[in-house]
Design brief:
It is a single chain. Strand 2 (69-78) and strand 3 (81-95) form a beta hairpin. The chain is 15% helix and 52% strand. The protein starts with a helix and ends with a strand. The chain is mainly β and 167 residues long.
Length: 167
């Protein structure tokens, strides 16, 4: 009984999330305008990212498909000094015809670790466009952290990560 309840709740939450995403995608609302002017109510941390390596796994049908996975890491720099790293696992969860990816991101900094989650729709091949990720928690000095991160992939070899922590 308990197992069935957990599955039922999980499917109900997944169904509600899917309906909300599909509803938002089909609504005729004004487009979302991305802004980086969020400094007032947030503690802002800004880093330069440099690739640290990674792997792509073609786990679904051959070629771009649901189930494919990318695992990679970047080094974080502040004023030219390496101050941390991130670890990222992204899974393709939808193809229609663009790709929807779900990523879990951990950012290790001297004061602790920030945890982030990202759901992103991107065309194939993906252009390097800026995007946001939700901060969903942390450990060490970031226990209870919330806010968002803004990632600007200015090139294939360098990105900028700006973290906005709610005060």
């Amino acid at each position: 009984m308990r197992k069935r309840l957990k599955v039922g709740l999980g499917l109900g939450l997944a169904g509600a999330l899917l309906a909300s995403v599909l509803g938002a995608a089909n609504a005729s609302a004004a487009p979302v305008v991305m802004t980086t002017d969020l400094s007032a109510p947030y503690k802002v941390l800004k880093f330069d990212l440099k690739p640290g390596g990674g792997e792509f796994f073609d786990l679904g049908t051959a070629g771009p498909s649901i189930g494919d996975q990318t695992i990679f890491s970047n080094f974080l720099y502040k004023n030219g000094e390496r101050v941390g790293y991130d670890a990222i696992v992204c899974n393709v969860v939808r193809m229609n015809p663009e790709r929807t990816i779900l990523c879990d991101i951990s950012v290790s900094l001297p004061d602790g670790v920030l945890y982030m989650s990202l759901l992103r729709v991107e065309p194939l091949p993906p252009p390097p466009t800026p995007f946001y990720s939700a901060i969903v928690g942390g450990s060490g000095g970031y226990v209870g952290a919330s806010g968002q991160a803004y990632i600007d992939p200015s090139s294939n070899v360098a990105h900028t990560l700006t973290i906005y922590l709610e005060r």
